[in-house]
């Protein structure tokens, strides 16, 4: 059993705290957001993540997990402190480190004994050294500490399973002994542990996210070409994915990547490169292709509906991907803004994010389920591939609509089937079917 403080109870921090507690450690999870901490003390989760509520309550009941807003209280007796605060994009695309700075200052002022400071936030290369400088400068008296980078690779929606079954743990530090102590904490996860230097560990996180974003933009570029040449990108991706050098993941063509990580991390890496006089040519293309997906979806709607003025459009799904309530950089919200600017009336349904979305965009009318959403719509747009959309009664949906028009931003349905059902349907990159019939066709 080790004593651990986790700073930040967001998607990464709360999952990290709950999982380390579940592994038998004593964890204090800290946040400056008093509402979140008060909620957690009452058992109310600040985020939606499958399995999290049960794991948190089990570990609170066992006395291994507690919550506080006080750094002094949390750090008393802690051997490790994990920083898991947000690092959003700044104005020029650089990572904004104000929360990391504040956390480092607070740790420095409150620490009462030797500490290993482990950074889980995604931070620009060199931040580990900078954190060490901040801690040294803010300590009331010198107390030994080490900084270790431990970038987080979990995905929202499967965060607990990703944390517990990582593909690898990457640790970076100039202090080998400290890195090995952090490695010990991760031994129960039974994954390869790589220990490297601080800067390299920080870079591994950006390079990994940029590579995954590149895969998504790559398949979206292929989708564009498929559309022009009459091939089906879903089949193309499946055929490519069998090759172990390529792999099947991150090859879904459609609306592109969103969320709180890929967009900001690709931007931040490009910014780091440009700052040092390097031209991040590929990263620029990845970002341009991604931004274009949202424009293309609106263009498909224009082609099907003519003007969007006064059309009622229903958005199926609002979050950037299924199984999360995260709306940061969600393509649906970007698309909603464009559609509203073109004079459309918007309705939406999402299984978990409607309340949060309504407060961000009160112009959108929320519906109780997909069938209520379809009522009177001139078009439906699939923005998120929630499981519950995979087996909809599409005839019932069609009957409820004013016009049977659907643009499928996640290639959830089969164009031939949609055409047979009488929909005017457009996916992304679906070209022609195996029977040679155009798959983007209007009703048979
Ligand atoms: P988040 O916004 O969900 O949570 C951050 C939390 O930190 C918030 O609750 C906030 O109140 C708190 N906070 C801010 N300043 C603080 C301070 N000074 N002291 C204490 N608490 C403070 O963020 P997140 O999505 O969990 O991401 C955290 C970091 O992990 C980011 O760098 C992100 O890039 C990285 N990351 C995120 C994911 C993901 O899927 N969300 C995956 C891997 C890595």
Write the layout of secondary structure elements.
Elements: E1 3-7, H1 11-22, E2 26-30, H2 34-41, H3 52-61, E3 65-68, H4 71-75, E4 80-83, H5 98-110, E5 115-119, H6 127-138, E6 145-149, H7 159-164, E7 169-172, H8 176-186, E8 193-196, H9 198-229, H10 233-241, H11 262-275, H12 281-305, E9 312-316, H13 331-341, E10 345-349, H14 354-360, E11 365-366, H15 370-374, E12 379-382, H16 394-400, E13 405-408, H17 415-420, E14 424-426
Parallel strand pairs: 1-2, 1-4, 2-3, 4-5, 5-6, 7-8, 9-10, 9-12, 10-11, 12-13, 13-14
Helix pairs in contact: 1-3, 5-6, 9-11, 9-12, 11-12, 12-13
Bound molecules: nicotinamide-adenine-dinucleotide.
Account of the 3D structure:
This protein is an alpha/beta fold and 444 residues long. The chain is 43% helix and 13% strand. The protein has helices at residues 11-22, 34-41, 52-61, 71-75, 98-110, 127-138, 159-164, 176-186, 198-229, 233-241, 262-275, 281-305, 331-341, 354-360, 370-374, 394-400, 415-420; strands at residues 3-7, 26-30, 65-68, 80-83, 115-119, 145-149, 169-172, 193-196, 312-316, 345-349, 365-366, 379-382, 405-408, 424-426. Strands 3-2-1-4-5-6 form a six-stranded parallel sheet, sandwiched between helices. A six-stranded parallel sheet has the order 11-10-9-12-13-14. Strands 7-8 form a two-stranded parallel sheet. Helix 5 (98-110) packs parallel to helix 6 (127-138), helix 9 (198-229) crosses helix 11 (262-275) and helix 11 (262-275) crosses helix 12 (281-305). The longest helix is centred in the middle third of the chain and has 32 residues, at 198-229. The chain is globular. The termini are far apart. The relative contact order is 0.09. The mean pLDDT is 96. The structure holds nicotinamide-adenine-dinucleotide.
